[in-house]
Amino acid sequence: MSSAISAAAEAAPVLAGMPLRERAGYLVKAADALLNAADELVPLAMEETGLTEPRLRGEIKRTAVQLKLFAEVAAAGEFLSVRLDAADPDFVLGPRPDLRRMLVPLGPVLNFAASNFPFAFSVAGGDTASALAAGCPVVVKAHPGHPRLSDRTAAIVSAVLPAGALSVIHGQDEGVAALKDPRIAAASFTGSLAGGQALAAIAAARPQPIPFYGELGSLNPVVVTPAALEARAGSIAEGFAASVSGSAGQLCTKPGLLFVPGALELSASFPPHKLLHPGIVEGYAQRRAAILGTPGVTVVVEGTAGDDGVTPTLVETDLATLVKHRDTLLQEAFGPLSIVVRYTPGEPLGETLLELVEGSLTAGVHVADGEDSPWLHDLVTTLQTLAGRVLFNGWPTGVAVTPAMQHGGPFPATTNPTMTSVGTAAIERFLRPVVYQDAPASLLPEPLRDDNPWNVPQQHSPAGSSLTWGSEIVA
After folding, report:
1. Average pLDDT over residues 128-145
2. Residue 1 has what pLDDT?
3. Which domain, by its residues, includes 156?
4. At residue 388, what are phi and psi to the nearest 5 degrees?
5. Which has the closest alpha carbon to 360: 334, 391, 380, 388?
6. What is the distance, to the nearest Å, from the Cα of residue 56 to the centroid of all Cα atoms in its chain?
7. Which class for 56: exposed (0-12), middle (13-18), buried (19 or more C-beta within 10 A)?
């Protein structure tokens, strides 16, 4: 563990000072290396995780796309947020010095890999891609569910990166020790609420606390309006079952609650699917038993749960039961189980959701064509308060790897409501601002120089501009 962090600490100034297009080139090389090794890595991932070949081949492609997306971000340089304020003796508040601001990398990042995405949220996944694009070396604490895959992926990808840019450690004790190491400047995590909270507390209790970006748990509520139910109940039921069942429900965006204003005919005929590892099997069996044993909960699709595989379980209840048994029912069930909740049309559902449902990664609403009402506006406002992504007439499983994506939300979805772990804004987690004041030109970093050798976007505030601030705005 210590050698991995030492190597990362030595690599940090190298990555930070590297020209942006060169840094971007390494990310492209990493993506190509991953794709070229797919025929070796996918069977290994299948053996260790139980996930299917089509799912894993799609995921390895997504992982490569993430790396290439962040290569584009790194090369463009906009993420540096360069701002240049010229020295101004006539500044309205008194003489202004020459100020030049940019974002710089934090330093070595510790990434706690996820179990359910052995490529996309693991060794070479989105956290690693965004940290490397920011100029931060990465130490990955591998997930115990796929250790051999983690080591092999790291060997393949690190071979095309600068020395020390990417390494892997194993074991809970090693991960905690790394989190406490003063050379680690930030940490990212995807996993359970309990595990994430424990690690966040360690990061905050350090002599020098560091940012901890954790994705912890999410119920992802979806509401169906009366008009939408009348218009397309069958397709809604079908889409819901497929979303709950995808990857055996082992997705952080699985819809855990579906609110409907009437009857919904549900079925879920899917073959058994193995869960990722014994810990998830045990946790899912316990949550399923607790939910099925709750008074007022009716089993619609019973499903199965066992070491050899699971099939979807769908249950139904009403809003009053959900309120009464919130302590049991409003906990994430990581696996193919979801709760359908009946509500009365016209009641203030938004108020109830705010009272019951904690922060989620996503929230959704199914509406009819042209539907609009004050009730619906209030509901959408509530969903925005609850979640980082609000979907209309769709299902939350499936997260587009694209610049505008937000994959984060209020606690407990994430430890920081402003973070995202997907989309180009993810790079902002691993940067901090620095201002150079009245610096000699020869000592300025390249992005802050007047000749702009890296050709990055620069925002200028020229001398004299403060005299006209607000003059073109009508109050």
Report:
1. 97
2. 59
3. 2-216+417-431
4. -90, -15
5. 388
6. 19
7. buried
Residues serving a catalytic function are 215, 252
On whether both 354 and 233 belong to a single domain, the answer is: yes
Sign of the alpha-carbon torsion through 337, 338, 340, 341: positive
SS3 461: strand
| DSSP H helical ranges for 37-171 | 38-49, 53-76, 126-134, 147-158
Cα 305 to Cα 301: distance, rounded to the nearest angstrom: 13
405 lies in a domain?
Answer: no
For residues 189 and 238, state if they share a domain: no
Residues 198 and 229 in one domain: no
Q: Is residue 357 part of a domain?
A: yes
Does residue 250 sit within a domain? yes
User: How many domains would you assign to the chain?
Assistant: 2
Q: How many CB atoms lie within 10 A of CB 471?
A: 6
Distance, CA of 200 to CA of 104 (rounded, Å): 23
Using one digit for the tens of pLDDT, what is the confidence trace for 271-282? 888 888 888 999
Domain shared by 92 and 61, yes or no: yes
Q: What's the whole-number mean pLDDT along residues 7-23?
A: 97
Is there a single domain that holds both residue 159 and residue 56? yes
Q: Among positive and negative, which fits the CA dihedral 327, 218, 107, 156?
A: positive
> Around Cβ 453, how many Cβ atoms within 10 Å?
9
As a whole number, the mean pLDDT across the chain is: 95
Q: How confident is the model at residue 74 (pLDDT cuts 50, 70, 90)?
A: very high
> Are 238 and 203 part of one and the same domain?
no
My answer on whether omega of the bond before 412 falls inside 30° of 0, hence cis, is: yes
CATH number for the domain spanning 263: value is 3.40.309.10
Sheet holding 99-105, edge to edge: 431-437, 99-105, 82-85, 458-461
Instruction: Look at the block and give the residue holding tokens 């290994």.
Output: 44
pLDDT in tens, 151-191: 999 999 999 999 999 999 999 999 999 999 999 999 999 99
